[in-house]
Design goal:
The protein is built from 15 helices and eleven strands. With about 425 residues, it is of the alpha+beta class. It has three domains: about 70 residues, no CATH class; about 170 residues, no CATH class; about 110 residues, no CATH class. Strands 1, 2, 3, 4, 5, 6, 7, 8, 9, 10 and 11 form an eleven-stranded mixed sheet that branches. The longest helix has 17 residues.
């Protein structure tokens, strides 16, 4: 976003930030908050405490650092305020709630939660922080609704590191799917309107998350691994047919049946991202559907010859109300349409994260500034046919592809946490 665009949007921006002044006990933090929002929106080459302070006319970064580290304000209340603002403009009963994690690569071991773990940004194991994000994807646009820092077991059991980083005593180790369930429960308690839940195979393979969704009767489309255990397809199996014990076993039937439907997963950098889809009604091992619901396995096949030659297929697991597999859902109720909408929200939303709160390579070392940066970052709704209202870059590829492309890592340092030697 350019300074000219911010100026043109100044009246509405002032209304938004001014409407959140009640979150702060004094006027000074409210002023710094407004400066921080404008700095995060501005197209600065590097966004850190120094550059945003200089833009706001501060003598140094101390005011922004104090605001994030020590000022008395409730980041949970800000999350709720941002959620209400977004839903007033994007709220849609047909929306999709999307969970995905985003990573910030680190060089030291002081940043809270930083550990050697899988990094989706690079596709390998890196020293990084991981934040689980909840995105709201609707027909009119998308926005972040909530976030949870993933605290690895190496951190959860280290009392000294926890105290140094300010990790609350009640915060322990929770898996990423469990964090996703907590955020979804908060959204349900806030009566957020949505129709589907979607996540990739890192979450789809977790039986406890699926059990939570079943208990709450929430429709979902989840990516799943090829070894997802199945007890077979619905109905009587064909004599002499290969046994079906896992998701990958259905590929034989998909190819021999040859009933594929070509649909788009949305607009990409090179046009429509077209895939061929087929669907089977299945029975999931040791996890029966709720009354009136069925399990379906969607198989997605690339339409590109080089991918077909490599035998590349993706699997999505859909849990939704009847009808049976031989009937067709309504126009707005198709799992493939929901999956495509979730894809768009995941790609655009997670790429818009841009590291910790939109500060590339930010050295956010303590819990308080990290949890405060993300709700403070302007994740205002992006609407079609209107000027974009945040600086998030559009995704360049589908992260659910097995050979997904890498995002470039942008360096830069930001002392928004307590200063410590690295």
């Amino acid at each position: 976003m350019t300074p000219e665009q911010i100026d043109a949007w100044g009246e509405e921006l002032a209304e938004v930030t001014g409407g959140l002044a009640h979150l702060f006990a004094r006027p000074e933090p409210a002023e710094v908050f407004a400066d921080l929002i404008e700095g995060l929106l501005d197209g600065l080459p590097k966004k850190n405490g120094w550059t945003m302070s200089a833009r706001a006319g501060h003598a140094g970064p101390e005011r922004i650092q104090k605001f994030l580290n020590a000022a008395s304000w409730d980041d949970a209340a800000l999350v709720g305020a941002v959620r209400d603002y977004a839903l007033a403009r994007l709220g849609d009963e047909a929306a999709v709630m999307v969970v995905e994690d985003t990573q910030s690569i680190k060089k030291g071991d002081k940043s809270v939660g930083a550990a050697f773990q899988h990094c989706g940004t690079t596709g390998d194991v890196r020293n990084c922080q991981v934040m689980v994000m909840l995105t709201y994807a609707a027909g009119a646009g998308h926005t972040f609704l909530d976030r949870r820092l993933y605290l690895p077991q190496s951190w959860a059991g280290d009392v000294e590191r926890r105290e140094e980083a300010g990790v609350p005593a009640e915060v322990g180790f929770l898996t990423k799917p469990r964090l996703a369930a907590l955020m979804l429960a908060d959204a349900l308690a806030a009566q957020v309107p949505f129709s589907w839940f979607a996540a990739d195979s890192g979450y789809g393979r977790d039986p406890h998350l699926r059990a939570y969704l079943h208990a709450a009767a929430i429709r979902y489309v989840l990516g799943v691994p090829v070894d997802l255990p199945l007890s077979g397809v619905a109905g009587k199996p064909d004599l002499g047919a290969p046994p079906i014990a896992r998701a990958g076993d259905l590929l034989h039937y998909a190819i021999s049946r040859d009933r594929w439907e070509r649909r788009s997963c949305g607009e990409g950098t090179k046009g429509q991202r077209l895939y061929d889809w087929t669907v089977f009604e299945v029975e999931l091992a040791e996890q029966a559907p709720a009354d009136g619901y069925v399990h379906r396995l969607l198989i997605r096949r690339s339409t590109k010859k080089k991918h077909l030659a490599g035998g590349r297929f993706d699997y999505d697991y859909a849990y939704l109300p009847g009808p049976r597999a031989d009937a067709h859902p309504g126009p707005g109720d198709h799992p493939r349409r929901r999956s495509a909408l979730a894809d768009r929200g995941r790609q655009q939303g997670i790429e818009a994260a841009g590291g910790a709160g939109g500060l590339p390579g930010a050295q956010v070392e303590a819990v308080a500034p990290l949890h405060r940066l993300l709700p403070a970052r302007p994740r205002l709704p992006r609407r079609r046919a209107r000027r974009p209202r945040h600086t998030g870059a559009r995704a360049s590829g589908d992260r659910r592809r097995e050979s997904g492309g890498k995002r470039p890592h942008t360096g830069g340092k930001d002392r928004t946490g307590p200063s410590r030697s690295r």
